[in-house]
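agent> fetching stored inputs for the protoporphyrin IX containing FE docking request
agent> found them:
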Amino acid sequence: MSSIPSAEGFDSTLTLLRNPYGFISQTCRALDTDLFETRILLQKTICMTGSAAAEVFYSDDKLIRAGSMPGRIQKTLLGEGGIQGLDGAAHQHRKKMFMSLMGTEHIAALQGMSLHMLDNYAPDWEARNEVVFYDKVREMLTRAVCAWCGVPLPEAEVATRTAQLTALFEDAGAIGPKHWAARLARHRLEKWAAGMIQQVRDGELQPTQESALHVIATWRDLDGAILPPKVAAVELLNVLRPTVAVSVFIVQTAHALHRYPEWQEKLRNDEGLLEPFVQEVRRLYPFFPAVAARVKSTFEWQGYRFPEGCRVLLDLYGTNTDPRSWDAPLEFRPERFRDRAKNQYDFIPQGGGDHYTNHRCPGEWIAISQMKAFCRYLVNDVKYDVQDQDLELGTGELPPLPENRFIMRNVRRRR
Ligand code: HEM
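agent> prediction call returned; pasting tokens
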């Protein structure tokens, strides 16, 4: 058996933080390999890239999630006791709860709520000198997803809940005061969510049967018990938070429409290009750099030994831009998605494998449907100017956004 190639230096944490989207793929290319070994936060870690690596990462029996997530990410982004840390039968059972929310008509209803928000917001945008698009989209998505989930959101709480939900995904990786603010946001959101779960159980709040609040409050785990309030709160936030985070993809969509303006006319003329366009945004614009797991019990792959307990990182962004899977991988070419055969391992912006049995994101259809709705609206229903601003995406920042959060001017509705 060969020994796994090693990255330079004793610990790669800083190099990874400085170059979160390129570190794994660039190191693999330099070493001419699909995987290498290093230390991250002083822990031995195997880093992997590419579709073959994704296939082994998502094979059911080799890797587990329990204990794979750094504590600071659990205390902010994910919370404790939620689906992300479950394995085997417990995971597959809990996953059914999320998948039951993803019916086509139910997702269309959420899209309808966002379109309604756009119609409500547009007159105000016309009246303003400038619109910070990211801020407005986060607010609209907070309102839409709360309504969709059956979560009451009084007008006076909209700004606070939007800011708290944003802190979970924007500041999860931060160090210092921002990290502490994200922890506080999680604490307050979990208390709020657990209160609503209790109200549903006590019959004081009666959301519709198909709403996330109802489904989660009444869900029974494999042992037949309802979820402890804190865990149910974490799972409700596992729907609210990432739906608000779709605002990042929506700003990236607006960014792509600006950077590749020839696509505006194409999209106006051919509705069939909308999906390829947003898929190309999901492939090429960076969001989550990697996902983590641990080796369940020692196994061998491509002649290399993966020792029990070792942490493994799968490179999502590098796999989406791997030249072995994609022609001209760094070029924005939505046409590539027109006739592409589906593959669970080479296009993995929201994780890979199977939605029911692996940890692949159950919210992919929500992300695509929301991106399409906003993209269609920007192309067909409004005209606007993009303010002269620095539109570089700060890739040291997670998730990467333009510094001014995409400022639009002279927004007017097409009649
Ligand atoms: C903003 C766009 C989104 C991105 C970039 C994203 C990304 C991801 C990634 C990378 C994973 C982990 C995959 C893995 O561990 O292998 C994941 C899991 C998950 N996502 Fe998303 N996601 C997004 C939107 C959503 C939405 C809208 C929902 C709403 C339901 C959602 C709910 C979840 C849940 C519950 C999991 C855990 C699944 C499991 O452990 O089985 N995500 N997502």
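agent> quick read of the result: The domain at 13-413 is CATH 1.10.630.10 (Cytochrome p450).
agent> awaiting further instructions
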